[in-house]
Amino acid sequence: MGYFRDSKRVVVKVGTSTLTHNTGHLNLRYIEKLVKVLSDMQNWGMQVVLVSSGAVSAGVAKIGFGRIPSTPEEKQAMAAIGQSELMKMYDKFFSDYGHTVAQILMTKEVLSNPERRCAAENTFCRLLEMRCIPVVNENDSVSTDELTKFGGNDILSAYVAELCQADLLLNLTDIDGLYDSDPRSNPDAHLIERVETIDDSIFALAGGAGTDRGTGGMIAKLNAAKMVTEKGIPMFILNGKDPDILYTLLDGGHVGTYFTAKKND
Question: Could you please report the per-residue DSSP string of 66-97?
Answer without folding.
Answer: -S---SHHHHHHHHHHHHHHHHHHHHHHHHHT
